[in-house]
Write a structure and sequence with these properties.
Layout lengths: L3 E10 L2 E11 L4 E5 L6 H8 L7 E6 L2 E2 L5 H7 E4 L11 H6 L14 H13 L15 H14 L4 E5 L7 H12 L6 E5 L3 H7 L2 E6 L2 E6 L1 H4 L2 H8 L3 E5 L6 E5 L12 E5 L6 H10 L2 E8 L3 H9 L3 E4 L7 H13 L2 E4 L10 H4 L9 E4 L14 H11 L3 E3 L2 H11 L1
Parallel strand pairs: 3-8, 3-9, 6-7, 7-8, 13-14, 13-16, 14-15, 16-17, 17-18
Antiparallel strand pairs: 1-2, 1-4, 4-5, 9-10, 11-12
Helix pairs in contact: 4-5, 10-11
Length: 414
């Protein structure tokens, strides 16, 4: 049984269509995130699910029961909403606000019972506001008020919790605190939340719905929804999408002010590996350089970065030495490059050809990143790699410590 199912829903405000043919469902106990640019209909979708706005067409079902068949009290027992606006007009105590969540369960002329008080106390503990029970909501911080609203929603004992960018006005520490609380609820409550921050959505959500111009354009796990292609199509920006080394979830780096199409004024070949070149590749593309890289094996982090950025990369099979054919491809990249940048990569007999080949180009400018004047990488070749680097330095290779210095050296040559 699906806790909530949305089927071909349309919503309009007057003559303006806001949502069109929206169809998806939530899985019991999951966190389902809704993402998309401003004006794509994210908040309206939540309002439709909580019956705050009327639908033009389509159906919304809760546990296979039509949303429109439920009375207001029964609907409030099943769905709780935490809004983005955290203002509370009257000078209530925290306990008073949380107790408001029990109204759907208390008769019109009845008073709260011992069980209602127990449920409120539990909700305050879950939301980490129990110590604020007697405080005025006007005397606590924004993050604390947001936790109070979560506690009020939990006091409703809902099956579905809807959040409308409930952390967007908070600093990052409070955002993480609240999202950790929400994640701790899953298993008993299905959470559907609008997210502005895509990286938070990628980490906390089991699945995502991506909206653009009234419609669903993608649904699925974050790694399948938050792709470079989708982000470009929906948000109109170029991004670098990486896999976080600790969480295994995608994280997004916008390519701020990228001007590669307009300023391809110099070709650069990057010798890297083991993740040592990813940030440099990103910076070079952002600065407008035409870049190539390699030789890299297809499991290397730098290869994943180059692929995500659309950078040509000479590749070799994992654990294989650079073959004569691959060396020819490498030579073509170096021939086309005005400058070669070597990063602080580990090097052994399998990839030493990446720098050995540079001795065939005595007039080619070389920049050694993170070198400090010495061998810029762990040398597993018995000293051959260090000897090559020293010869490159002797003939005029430029040692630098930071990516900014690489960019400075390149632009000074342009």
């Amino acid at each position: 049984m699906k806790p909530i199912e949305i089927i071909d829903v349309d919503v309009s405000y007057g003559a303006k269509k806001i949502l069109e043919a929206i169809t998806f469902h939530a899985v019991r106990g999951e966190i389902l995130g809704i993402v998309g640019p401003n004006g794509s209909g994210k908040t309206t979708l939540l309002k439709a699910m909580s019956r705050v706005v009327a639908r033009d067409n389509g159906e919304i079902r809760l546990d296979e029961q039509g949303l429109d068949t439920l009375g207001h009290r029964e609907l409030a027992r099943r769905i709780a909403v935490v809004p983005q606006d955290i203002s509370i007009g009257f000078d209530y105590t925290v306990r008073d606000v949380v107790m408001m969540g029990r109204h759907p369960h208390i008769g019109r002329f009845a008073s709260e019972t011992a069980r209602d008080l127990e449920i409120c106390d539990r909700a305050m503990r879950l939301a980490n506001v129990a110590d604020l029970a007697e405080a005025s909501v006007h005397d606590i911080s924004g993050g604390e008020r947001q936790r109070v609203l979560i506690a009020r929603a939990l006091a409703q004992e809902p099956k579905i919790l809807l959040l409308d960018e409930a952390t967007s006005n908070l600093d990052i520490s409070h955002q993480i605190e609240i999202l950790n609380i929400i994640r701790g609820l899953t298993g008993t409550i299905t959470v559907i939340s609008v997210f502005h921050d895509l990286n938070l959505a990628a980490y906390y959500c089991d699945r995502l719905i991506m909206l653009k111009e009234k419609r669903v354009v993608a649904v699925g796990e974050p790694r399948y929804v938050l792709t470079r292609e989708n982000l470009n199509a929906v948000y109109g920006i170029d991004t670098l999408v990486k896999t976080h080394p600790l969480t295994g979830r995608p994280y997004i780096l916008p390519v701020y002010g990228r001007a590669a199409k307009d300023r391809l004024y110099e070709n650069v070949h990057v010798v890297c590996g083991g993740g040592t070149g990813s940030d440099l590749l990103y910076a070079l593309r952002e600065a407008g350089f035409r870049v190539s890289t390699g030789v890299l094996n297809v499991f290397d982090t730098d290869y994943a970065t180059a692929t995500a950025l659309g950078i040509p990369c000479v590749t070799e099979a994992p654990f294989a030495a650079i073959s004569p054919g691959t060396r020819e491809d490498l030579a073509q990249c170096i021939d086309a490059a005005y400058t070669v940048v070597v990063t602080a990569m580990p090097i052994g007999q399998g990839n030493i050809e990446n720098i050995r080949i540079l001795e065939d180009y005595p007039d080619k400018p070389v920049i050694l990143l993170n070198s400090g004047g010495n061998c810029p990488f762990p040398d597993y070749t018995g000293g051959e790699a260090e000897a090559i680097v020293r010869r490159l330095l002797d003939r005029g290779a430029i040692p630098v410590e930071r990516i900014e210095e690489v960019l400075q050296a390149l632009t000074s040559r342009a």
